[in-house]
């Protein structure tokens, strides 16, 4: 599918003001692309009910107050939790299942750049890997029964690197022996798409949308350089950062695109490709290149990836139980 101009995206979003009653869950909505998407969502929808997960409600209070003013008819529910833990994901999902009969949208964009050595959570999963892959799939699996009951056609939008898949490190899916920033990015992306395709077969009435936002002017990139020292990084601040500012899209435009992906008919289940799992590029184009994924599918890696994912969850929860026993 060809690139979609931002003017067309905004025009489609503006027509959403006639839509009401949406129920959504946002993960990663307190900064960056997620915050911009949340802002656009509230700007366009009439009286939505939105759950937002974050570490500290006090830290997000000012942002939430501003958003409430933007849409006084919206119901915004903040769930305070550390979402990098599988156990906490289960708690959040249980809270939503207790209150809702359906969920129209699960939006996920939590994460950060993984430099240096892995930083393991108390459940034994690297935090970057957990946020970019393992907790996202746990959220999807737990909430799919609700999402599949959406009267509008449920959607899962996950912002990572859809369409940028690379070959898997097949003998080390969890990167215990091959951890570095490039491998984490590549492995998370390919695992993500294969897992979405696995789930899509189980829930054919749900749209699974894996988005690559492209270069976006978020604080994550800029802070990386402005908080660093050394000759090369000083040079980068004077060269790469200005260049980045010229070629990157604004965080506002990226947020508009994510709302578009969450609502436009072209990304529904099934889409024009006959699939209900879509990879979407930086200009809202649906990616159809299967040179990497085709052989992996033929070798059964959708199923193998899901088996690996479930085994990591099981081990994480076992480790967590051991930690809690020692505490109490």
From TrEMBL:
Record carries keyword Oxidoreductase: yes
Chain segments annotated as coiled-coil in the UniProt record: none
InterPro entries xref list: NAD(P)-bd_dom_sf, SDR_fam, Sec_Metab_Biosynth_Oxidored
One of the record's GO molecular function terms: oxidoreductase activity
UniProt keyword list: Oxidoreductase
Pfam family, one: adh_short
Gene3D superfamilies: NAD(P)-binding Rossmann-like Domain
Keyword Oxidoreductase found: yes
Protein name: NAD(P)-binding protein
Organism: Lentithecium fluviatile CBS 122367
